[in-house]
Each structure stands twice: as structure tokens, then as C-alpha cells.
Amino acid sequence: MLDPRGARQHADELARTLYSLLVTYVIESINQRVCATENSVGNTISIVDFPGFTQSAKSSTLDQLLNNAAVESLYSFAVQSFFLDKADCLESENISVPATSYFDNSDAARGHLKTGNGLLAIIDDQTRRGKTDLQMIHSFKKRFKNKSPTITVGNREANLPGSNFETPSIHVTFTVKHFAGEINYPINGLIEENGETISGDLISLISSTRNDFVRALFGQGVLKKVTHPKDFKAII
């Protein structure tokens, strides 16, 4: 039995799950309908549309971080394409042009996206290994302290008022110096957001549905199910 708060949390989880699976279903359906075979494609035009740099998180720290990382990467690509590559090309032709000033965000881009030990890679790794937010902060410190000029990590412990002893703090943040300014990202709840885990009870409940559309939503390949080793009907 659930109390009112638990019932609300389960209802919110169901709403988030349905929304996520519906978006995935619509996108995949569109892709299947408009997809063309490779030998029938000549030239293509791709459009990248980002919502822009996000100064404050309206609902999700993870969404803010991923959005800003994408914008950071796009800015880095633009700098490389418009300034560095062009300068190398002109230099190879013995053409001299006045130096152009620009903000070099290569450290921030590497800090976010470097394979294996970039910020996003560490978050994914800690999520897969079932670590906590505070354990992830320890990994951040180990990777970035005194090694990155653009990423600084706060302390895991803090002195509570009236106490001389440090205790784990849920208000830990890490700071990223983006090309558009510094942003403090709260660590609390980041692992849970990144996990996108759906309750096994919810999956078991939906599996008994007679609605073909709902069954198709929860049968998509994007949804990975882990079954109990001794009972393949039990979703864990």
C-alpha cells in the first residue's frame, strides 16, 4: 500500500515514462516512413537546432548540462572551422592575414566530451556501476582537480551549523567555465536522472495490457528489460 506521497510519485513516474516512450515512438515512426535507401540518396542538407545556452535549470540539471555541452561542442566546431582551419589553409598558400581574436573553449569542450574520462563519460560510468551522487563527486575530483582550468568541484562534506564535524552534503555542486559564462550544477539527483530506470512493477503491470498500442510502446528496442535469473516472467 502507498501513502498519498508514494502514490503521487508513482503517478509522476508513469507520466514521465509514457511521455518518453511516446516521443521515441513518434520519432522512430517518422524515421521509418521518410528513410531512403543509401543508393537513392545524392546530396543532403542537415540542420542543427539547439535551444541555446541555458543559464539556469528550469526542471532538470541533466538536461541543462547536456544542452550546454552540446552548445559548447558546436561553438568549438565553429571556432575550428571558421578560424583555425581557415588560417591553416591561408598559411599553406602563403597568404598572410591579420590575427583574429576569439575565445578558445577547447579545454571546456574536452572536459565535457573526452572519451573515457570526460564529464559526461564519468556520469555514464558511475550510473552503470550503481554509484551514488557523492561517489561521483569523488570521481570528478580525482579527474579534474588541478588538471582542468574549466571544471572545478565542490566539497562532499560541510560543517552543519552548531557542529564541528563535517557531514556529507546534498548541496554539492561542480562548476563549469563555459564560453558563455560560469555555471554551477547541483550534483543531487544527477545519477538518478541519468539512469532513466523504469520500475519493474510498472513493467510487470503494463505487460498484462490488452491494448496493442500500449504493448507496442513498452515493446520498443530502446527499452531494455532485465529479468530475474530464476523467473523470466519477473522484471527487475
Description:
The chain is 47% helix and 12% strand. The chain is an alpha+beta fold and 236 residues long. It has two domains: 55-196, Methane Monooxygenase Hydroxylase, Chain G, domain 1; 198-236, no CATH class. The protein starts with a helix and ends with a strand. The model is unreliable at 231-236 (pLDDT under 50).
Helix content: 40-55%
End-to-end distance = 19 Å
Give the overall shape, derived from the CA principal axes: flat
Number of helices: 8
> SSE string, helix = H, strand = E?
HHHHHEEEEEHHHEE
The number of domains: 2
Strand fraction equals 5-15%
CATH architecture classification name of the largest domain = Up-down Bundle
DSSP, total strands: 7
The fold-level CATH name of the largest domain is Methane Monooxygenase Hydroxylase, Chain G, domain 1
The CATH class of the largest domain is Mainly Alpha
Strand count, sense and barrel status of the largest sheet are: 3 strands, antiparallel
Q: Main sheet: which strands, in order across? A: 1-4-5
- Poorly predicted sequence stretches spanning 5 or more consecutive residues: 231-236
Alpha-carbon Rg, integer: 23 Å
Which whole number gives the mean pLDDT? 81
**Structural class, judged by helices and strands?**
alpha+beta
Keywords: Actin-binding, ATP-binding, Motor protein, Myosin, Nucleotide-binding
Domain Myosin motor: 1-236
GO molecular function: actin filament binding; ATP binding; microfilament motor activity
Family: Belongs to the TRAFAC class myosin-kinesin ATPase superfamily. Myosin family.
